[in-house]
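RECORD TYPE: inverse folding
INPUT: C-alpha cells
STRUCTURE:
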C-alpha cells in the first residue's frame, strides 16, 4: 500500500468519524430547522446547538455510527481477520455499556436473549417479524472499514460486508447497501476512478438486491434535494443513507463541501454524513479533509493510533 493509498485509507476512517461528529448537529432536523438554527451554515463542531439531544455528545464527539465501526475495527486489530461472532459480542457490549444513539432495529436484535449464540438468525427473525419491511441504516453506517481491510479483494470485501451487515440487519436492501459502500471504498483506496468504483458498487449491490443498480443510477441523476433526506417517514432508511453517500461521491467537489451539503439536508444527518464522509475520504484522502475538523475530533488521537495499527497489519500482509 503506497503513501497515497494509505492516505485514502486514513481518509475513510476520519471521513466517517468527522461526518458523524459534525452531522449530529443537524440530526433529525428538517431543512427549515437547519436554516433557523444555523443561518450561516453548520461549519464546525462549535456551531452545534447544545439542546437536550445534542448535549449527550461533546463537541467533536462521534456517535453510535462510528462506535459500531470501531467494534469492527478493534476486532480486526485483535484477531487479524473478520470474525463475526467477536464483532457481534463487541457491539452487544457497547450497547450495554454505552449505547448512546442506538437505533430501534439494532436495539431489538441485540436485546434478544439468544443474540450472542446465533446473531444472524436472530437478526433474520426480527426482519421476518416486520414482514420484510425493516430496512434501516444501522448496517451501512459502520461498514466502510471493511473496504479498507481487504482493499485488494473485491470478492472478500463483499463476503465480509454481507456477513457483518447480517449481524443486525437482514433485509436485502441493507445488505446491498453495505456491500456497495464497502466495495466502493475498496476500489477508491486502490486508486480506481469514481466512475469505476460506482460501477463496481452497482454490480455488487445488484447481486444482493435486484434493482440496486437501477436505483443507484436514479440517485446519481438526481439533485441532493430530490433525495428528500429529511422526509419524516423515511428518515433512517438504508437507501436514503447510501444514496446520500454515493451522491456526494459523484458530485461533491471536496470533502468539506460534500459533508456540508449532506448535513444541511437534515434527516438522519450524522449517519448520512458518516457514509458520505467515508466515501469522500476514500476518494480524496485524509490530507484533503479540513484540518480544523481533524484537530477538533474528540478522541482523534486514538483514531490515529488505530489507523496506524491497521495500516501496519495490512502492510505486513496480516489481512
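DESIGNED SEQUENCE:
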Amino acid at each position: 500500500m503506497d503513501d497515497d493509498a494509505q492516505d485514502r485509507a486514513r481518509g475513510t476512517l476520519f471521513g466517517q468519524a468527522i461526518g458523524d461528529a459534525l452531522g449530529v448537529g443537524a440530526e433529525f432536523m428538517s431543512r427549515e430547522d437547519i436554516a433557523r438554527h444555523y443561518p450561516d451554515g453548520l461549519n464546525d463542531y462549535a456551531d452545534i446547538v447544545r439542546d437536550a439531544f445534542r448535549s449527550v455528545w461533546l463537541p467533536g464527539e462521534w456517535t453510535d455510527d462510528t462506535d459500531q465501526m470501531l467494534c469492527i475495527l478493534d476486532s480486526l486489530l485483535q484477531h487479524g481477520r473478520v470474525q463475526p461472532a467477536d464483532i457481534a459480542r463487541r457491539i452487544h457490549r457497547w450497547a450495554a455499556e454505552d449505547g448512546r444513539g442506538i437505533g430501534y432495529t439494532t436495539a431489538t436484535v441485540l436485546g434478544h436473549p439468544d443474540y450472542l449464540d446465533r446473531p444472524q438468525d436472530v437478526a433474520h427473525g426480527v426482519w421476518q417479524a416486520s414482514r420484510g419491511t425493516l430496512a434501516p441504516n444501522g448496517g451501512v453506517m459502520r461498514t466502510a472499514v471493511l473496504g479498507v481491510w481487504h482493499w485488494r479483494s473485491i470478492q472478500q470485501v463483499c463476503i465480509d460486508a454481507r456477513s457483518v451487515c447480517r449481524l443486525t440487519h437482514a433485509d436485502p436492501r441493507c445488505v446491498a447497501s453495505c456491500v456497495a459502500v464497502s466495495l466502493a471504498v475498496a476500489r477508491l483506496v486502490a486508486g480506481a476512478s469514481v466512475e469505476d468504483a460506482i460501477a463496481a458498487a452497482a454490480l455488487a449491490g445488484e447481486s444482493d438486491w435486484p434493482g440496486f443498480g437501477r436505483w443507484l443510477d436514479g440517485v446519481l441523476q438526481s439533485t441532493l434535494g430530490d433525495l428528500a433526506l429529511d422526509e419524516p417517514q423515511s428518515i433512517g432508511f438504508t437507501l436514503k443513507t447510501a444514496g446520500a453517500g454515493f451522491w456526494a461521491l459523484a458530485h461533491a467537489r471536496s470533502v468539506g463541501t460534500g459533508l456540508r451539503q449532506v448535513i444541511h439536508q437534515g434527516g438522519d444527518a450524522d449517519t448520512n454524513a458518516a457514509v458520505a464522509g467515508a466515501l469522500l475520504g476514500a476518494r480524496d484522502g485524509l490530507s484533503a479533509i479540513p484540518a480544523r475538523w481533524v484537530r477538533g475530533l474528540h478522541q482523534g488521537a486514538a483514531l490515529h493510533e488505530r489507523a496506524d495499527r491497521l495500516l501496519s497489519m495490512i502492510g505486513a500482509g496480516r489481512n
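NOTES: The CA atoms of residues 213 and 225 lie 20 Å apart.
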